């Protein structure tokens, strides 16, 4: 899946700021590919981009209209369809992270064919994949792993990509989730892949390379999460990581949505991930820990990072508050 850029970010008529987190993530990490925003009402959430009609955005170079919002149920509202149809008539591709497929709408599918446009449903994957084989391949890879879901693996991956490039390590971000795919413009949503092919999908996302230094592979789920460990294990085997960074939210009491499952301790998570990763890369190692310390004030957060750095010992940071330069510095030695 490779989505043509630049983007016009479609915000529809949503009024909940949390509903536009996908569009906001694209803008934060790839502002240079965001030509503007399209809102259907004055009350729609704004990202403080230029409000552009479809025709003006296309004239400025935008080639894909990205549905940058989420709603309960993941459906495409009827009130959006006229705009999506007109976008196809102008020549836009459409990209969506909704559960409902763009291609399941007969009118959108027909207009896409007529206008030689593409429909990208990034939550779904219909391409051909091989099963993983675990064979060594060229290039260095870093994988973010977590103590649970939604603990900052994508943010950490993108922060590392940016900092590693800043430090002179030619690095590429490899997307494995829907927002990451929009940001990178390519990738595979591995949680939409049949289980047998998850490791193979990861090998396809980060194939053998020599033209740059590192691939940073976006992690998913957690190896000790009873709901989503399968995708995490497939990623570990397919990524063959040389380096791993553990992500954790300070203060979380139990596995997300599972109050009967207490959070595992960091050492247990690291031990499990090392054991699994070393099946396909015997030299896999941790190079840092990234924390979401939003539950702490900044001085307590700094002190906790220092405490963990002494305990393990590894660079420990909050990528939002303190950046990831100390972790990136470890990667020059590989």
Automatic annotation (TrEMBL):
Residues 54-124 form the D-glutamate N-acetyltransferase-like N-terminal domain. SUPFAM superfamilies: P-loop containing nucleoside triphosphate hydrolases. It comes from the Bacteria. PANTHER family: DUF1611 DOMAIN-CONTAINING PROTEIN (PTHR40690:SF1), GLL3100 PROTEIN (PTHR40690). Signal peptide: none annotated. Pfam families: DUF1611, DUF1611_N. InterPro entries: DgcN-like (IPR011669), DgcN-like_C (IPR035086), DgcN-like_N (IPR035402), P-loop_NTPase (IPR027417). Residues 131-327 form the D-glutamate N-acetyltransferase-like C-terminal domain. This is N-acetyltransferase DgcN.
């Amino acid at each position: 899946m490779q989505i043509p850029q630049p983007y016009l970010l479609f915000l529809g008529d949503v009024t909940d700021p949390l509903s536009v987190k996908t569009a906001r993530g694209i803008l934060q990490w790839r502002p240079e590919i965001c030509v503007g925003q399209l809102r259907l009402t004055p009350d729609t959430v704004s990202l403080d981009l230029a409000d552009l009609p479809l025709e003006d955005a296309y004239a400025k170079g935008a080639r894909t209209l990205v549905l940058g919002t989420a709603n309960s149920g993941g459906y495409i509202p009827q009130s959006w369809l006229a705009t999506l149809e007109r976008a196809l008539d102008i020549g836009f591709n459409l990209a969506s992270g909704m559960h409902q497929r763009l291609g399941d709408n007969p009118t959108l599918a027909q207009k896409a064919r007529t206008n030689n446009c593409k429909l990208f449903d990034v939550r779904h994957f219909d391409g051909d994949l091989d099963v993983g084989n675990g064979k060594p391949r060229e290039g260095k890879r870093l994988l973010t792993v977590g103590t649970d879901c939604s603990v900052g693996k994508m943010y950490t991956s993108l922060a590392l990509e940016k900092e590693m490039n800043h430090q002179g390590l030619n690095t590429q971000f490899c997307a494995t989730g829907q927002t990451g795919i929009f940001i990178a413009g390519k990738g595979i949503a591995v949680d939409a892949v049949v289980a047998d092919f998850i490791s193979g999908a990861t090998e396809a996302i980060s194939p053998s390379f020599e033209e740059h230094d590192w691939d940073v592979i976006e992690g998913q789920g957690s190896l000790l999460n009873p709901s989503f460990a399968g995708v995490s294990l497939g990623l570990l085997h397919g990524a063959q990581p040389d380096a791993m960074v553990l992500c954790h939210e300070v203060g979380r009491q139990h596995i997300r949505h599972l109050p009967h499952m207490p959070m595992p301790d960091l050492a247990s998570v690291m031990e499990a991930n090392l054991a699994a990763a070393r099946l396909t890369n015997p030299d896999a190692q941790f190079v840092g820990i990234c924390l979401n310390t939003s539950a702490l004030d900044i001085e307590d957060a700094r002190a906790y990072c220092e405490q963990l750095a002494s305990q393990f010992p590894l660079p420990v940071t909050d990528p939002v508050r303190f950046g990831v330069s100390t972790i990136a510095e470890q990667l020059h030695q590989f």
